[in-house]
């Protein structure tokens, strides 16, 4: 890196070394949509946890975009072709509820919180122009 004129530390004080390059590689594999098992193989790791927890930077993952790509859904009703059996505990004899309405409200609220966190993270990580 010295011969290429690449400084050892960047403007944020982070050390640039082989492991940093591996983290960039792992993160880019993840953000490109590469399956985790494929990324593990590409990085020649024996443990998926090493690939996902050490060599993938969660601050650089596109969580917001991933959530926004989820298909739209009706909060309380399933599509007619997706009945849920009564034994699933929905209490709906026709099997039309995807989940107990209170559970869906809680899930929707949690999704809203996560979106807000993503927006905050996105704003805080943008470089001033």
Automatic annotation (TrEMBL):
Recorded hits in Pfam families, A to Z, give: Phage_integrase (PF00589)
User: Is Magnesium one of the keywords UniProt gives this record?
Assistant: no
| Keyword hit for Phosphoprotein | no
Q: Which InterPro entries does the UniProt entry name for this protein?
A: DNA_brk_join_enz (IPR011010), Integrase-like_cat_sf (IPR013762), Integrase_catalytic (IPR002104)
Instruction: Return the annotated region ranges for Disordered.
Output: 73-97
Keyword tags: DNA recombination
Which intervals hold domain Tyr recombinase?
A: 1-68
Q: What is this protein called in UniProt?
A: Tyrosine-type recombinase/integrase
Which species is listed as the source?
Gemmata palustris
Q: What is the lineage of its organism?
A: Bacteria, Pseudomonadati, Planctomycetota, Planctomycetia, Gemmatales
């Amino acid at each position: 890196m010295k011969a290429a004129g690449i400084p050892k530390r960047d403007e944020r004080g982070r050390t640039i070394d082989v492991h940093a390059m591996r983290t960039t590689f792992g993160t880019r594999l993840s953000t490109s949509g590469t399956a985790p098992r494929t990324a593990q193989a590409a990085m020649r790791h024996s443990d998926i946890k090493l690939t996902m927890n050490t060599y993938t930077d969660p601050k650089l993952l596109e969580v917001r975009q991933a959530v926004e790509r989820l298909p739209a859904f009706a909060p309380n009703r399933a599509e007619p072709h997706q009945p849920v059996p009564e034994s699933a505990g929905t209490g709906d004899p026709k099997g039309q509820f995807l989940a107990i309405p209170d559970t869906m409200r809680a899930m929707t609220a949690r999704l809203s919180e996560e979106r807000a966190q993503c927006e905050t993270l996105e704003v805080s990580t943008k470089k001033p122009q």
